[in-house]
Amino acid sequence: MLTLYSYWRSTTSYRVRVALNLKGLSYRTVPVDLVAGDQRRPDYVALNPVQGVPTLVLEDGTALTQSLAILDYLDHVVPDPALLPSDPLLRAKVQAAAQIIALDIHPVNNLKVMNRLKSEHGASADQGIEWMRHWMTQGFHAYQALLPDGPAYSFSDTPLLCDICLVAQLYNAHRWGVDMTPFARLLEIEEQALKLPAFDAARPENQPDAT
User: Is 28 part of a structural domain of the chain?
Assistant: First the structure.
């Protein structure tokens, strides 16, 4: 069986949980408490030198890291349902939207960055929250501007890679009080996605380590 090292509030872990569920793959979850520093344990660092989550360990013991790389792997080994469309132009658009979340918003808002802002640059807790809200708001505006009219999800009537990234990031947006008034389209996508069992089961609050 696949083993997913995950933290319940990690949006990157959330992405992989959704994909595993959509693909119908069985897996067991091993919690990694990022707040307690479990990611720095020597045994875990041996699996994931970046000291983050997720890590997906295959049945042969191979450890995969970085959520987008894991999602790409899963899409190749279990191609149905596809996370990326076959049309090259639409594929590029879906990847661009996903990367707004995964490469523009997430890296500047992750726990390591927030801790550094506070410990080395004197940011207060409130300033840290405003930092996260700023980058999420900017990214959501860019994401929403890319979307066509009509599909139930971002670019299709079925959820794709970008929708997985979006829904996970929206969890953080709600958690940190981002003003979602300008983002009605994104909230519609989220509402539609969370009706699906694959997304619902992957919600942070439904994880074994949720507190």
Answer: yes
